[in-house]
TrEMBL record, chains A, B:
Upper lineage: Bacteria, Pseudomonadati, Pseudomonadota, Alphaproteobacteria, Acetobacterales
InterPro entries given in the database record: GntR_C, TF_FadR/GntR_C, Tscrpt_reg_HTH_GntR, WH-like_DNA-bd_sf, WH_DNA-bd_sf
Organism of provenance: Falsiroseomonas stagni DSM 19981
Protein name: GntR family transcriptional regulator, vanillate catabolism transcriptional regulator
CDD domains: WHTH_GntR
GO MF annotation terms: DNA binding; DNA-binding transcription factor activity
Record keywords, A-Z: DNA-binding, Transcription, Transcription regulation
Entry superkingdom: Bacteria
PROSITE patterns noted in UniProt: HTH_GNTR (PS50949)
Amino acid sequence: MSQTLSVQLRLRDLIVSGEMPPGERLSEPSVAERLGASRTPVRAALARLAEEGLVEPIPSGGFAVRSFAEEEIQDAIELRGTLEGHAARLAAERGAPAAALAEMKRLIARMDEATSPPIREGNFTDYVALNAHFHELLVETAGSAVVARQIGRVVALPFASPSGFVLAQAALPEAHRVLTAAQEHHRGVVEAIEHREGARAEALMREHARLARRNLDFVMRNQESLRLVPGGALIRRRSWA
Amino acid sequence: MSQTLSVQLRLRDLIVSGEMPPGERLSEPSVAERLGASRTPVRAALARLAEEGLVEPIPSGGFAVRSFAEEEIQDAIELRGTLEGHAARLAAERGAPAAALAEMKRLIARMDEATSPPIREGNFTDYVALNAHFHELLVETAGSAVVARQIGRVVALPFASPSGFVLAQAALPEAHRVLTAAQEHHRGVVEAIEHREGARAEALMREHARLARRNLDFVMRNQESLRLVPGGALIRRRSWA
DNA sequence: CGTGTCGGGGCTGTATACAGACTGTCCTTT
DNA sequence: AAAGGACAGTCTGTATACAGCCCCGACACG
């Protein structure tokens, strides 16, 4: 693995895990020393993280760890809904290969399994992986590199990803109801794509993303569950400074 | 201006103008020598252009000038329509400041002027500038940094921008009709935002982008007009290699 | 004549040196 | 005592040196 990639991944981990608090200045020399690399790969890694949106350039030069207003995350989630809706509509309008549809149904069935009793340890992480896979497959099925790339950029923000809040949601009293609704959306989208119902597929994915917004609402009222959200330490409550 | 930025802009010009043909390999030393900078800023500039999508990493290392399939551009334009529709809907739902609406109306009026007789030299370039400004203002009015950033990334591809085909469209026999339709869309969107009609605003912006797809269709059948399109040299006709 | 191997050239990734700009502090002056 | 200026430390932007890798071509051998 290249030094650049290594620095990028480790730095992202440090940020997302909250070890680097929002606002912390990241100077090239300090990061270089901390991660044991020279300035050149550190510089490249910082530039990429800035592209992702996890750090931002500050006026005095260099970068700082970003923080995110709750509204901003709501916007990002809704935007993901719109983009995934776009992808679903494309898949429906242009037709999806039977193999892709079958695979999506299989994933849905396995998510059903993972969320039905008996509840075992690790069921939720199984669900998270399956869910992520489902969403990726949906985007791929749309068959547009441009769209896939764009969605990838939105999802790069950890809390905007389709699985960002699923883990925290386990602590939610309505966890079961939300999961049932989510699975109903999944089923509906596949059916809509199969029947070439573009508008329905699009509407469903938009509504699907609203579940994440509900989860965010809840998590913001529950500081303990916030720690289960990747990047949760970067979220600032409504109206700080 | 920094060397990095200078190299980035000049290299982009060389690519978009067609001086660097698609497929041409861009090695750091060659670009550095050609543009009179050292490898360090060249490297940074290439990375940014890769982010924009104008160049792509090639397996043997380094980058090459990208080419774009017609379908890909159609996809990018439709995606822009969806995103601008999203922005318009947000503006409508959340309400737009009166000043922004007034400014948009003013821009529309000036576009009317620019497209009505007497046709002067430069009318079209006026229109292009006003149109670009209108679209930027619309995005800004949505009031979401996340959405603005995302749209900016799609629009970075020159032919996906709202004004990409307007200039070439001047050669189109239906130029006047298309412009009239576009202005009708502009008027309708402002009205919809003003009346808080989110769905209408969104639908109009989507339809608006379809005009660009029509223009692309035409331009692809008219090699001369293709040269008026920024980045036209990068477009490859349906099914090359 | 075809194939395999060896060598050279060029390229990327990385480290590091250096110049200019900036920030923050401390001292001096009013 | 407060304000302004000078200085030191640090940072970024840039250039450049160096190592390892890959690709291509040439040459020799079967």
